[in-house]
Amino acid sequence: MSEIDENAEQERHRAKMAKRKAAQDAEVAGKAIAQKGLLIVHTGTGKGKSTAAFGLVLRMLGYDKKCAVVQFIKGAWDTGERKVLEEFGPLMEWHTLGEGFTWETQDKARDIAAAAKAWETAKTLMQDPALKLLVLDELNIALRYDYLPLDEVVTTLKDRRPDLNIVVTGRNAKRELIEAADLVTEMTLVKHHFAQGVKAQEGIEF
């Protein structure tokens, strides 16, 4: 390509990007709400729902804002993210209140009681005015199996105080929760190493 052609290509690219920037700037300028506590849902069959939520926790902690995690269903696993996040001391609360997935406990009454305890803990945390981000990990699973009253959960989440961000994770998010949410991301499974016989690994799954 000659120098003239390269200059022409560069000018076309510059003009294209300038037009795109102007459109982007106009879209951003049109947003009237500067701050709003969000209800975020991570769902779908793909890996990464809880991982993405913990990434948001780390981001919030980077601004010295208090966060909390309440884990439904999951048992007291020794996980890398919990080890790191609890190093933030009073800025971070972590509550693992499940006893394992329903096929592990095989006791519906116990599962319902554990979910109820986790939900009460979540509601108490929501009253803390210092809390800025609350992760309700695997709450979708508890709702899927009817361990908690869906209407109460959705209403409580919708009625949270205006500056509180809440992230709900887990497969099979209920339609009512999706409709109430501000942001919903569906993780899609394309390929998973588990299907190739690879077990859960330290630093990847936990």
Which tags fit this structure?
206 residues; alpha/beta; Rossmann fold; 2 domains; six-stranded parallel β-sheet; 6 strands; 44% helix; globular
Total helices: the number is: 8
Q: How would a textbook summarize the main sheet?
A: 6 strands, parallel
CATH superfamily of the largest domain: P-loop containing nucleotide triphosphate hydrolases
What is the arithmetic mean of pLDDT?
88
Taking strands numbered 1, 2, ... along the chain, how are they ordered across the largest sheet? 3-2-4-5-1-6
What name does CATH use for the topology of the largest domain? Answer: Rossmann fold
CATH class annotation of the largest domain: Alpha Beta
Number of strands: 6
Percent helix range: 40-55%
Distance between the termini: 51 Å
CATH architectural group of the largest domain:
3-Layer(aba) Sandwich
Low-confidence runs: none
List the helices and strands and how they pair.
Layout: H1 3-29, E1 39-43, H2 49-61, E2 66-71, H3 80-85, E3 92-96, H4 102-105, H5 108-126, E4 131-137, H6 139-144, H7 150-158, E5 165-169, H8 175-180, E6 183-186
Parallel strand pairs: 1-5, 1-6, 2-3, 2-4, 4-5
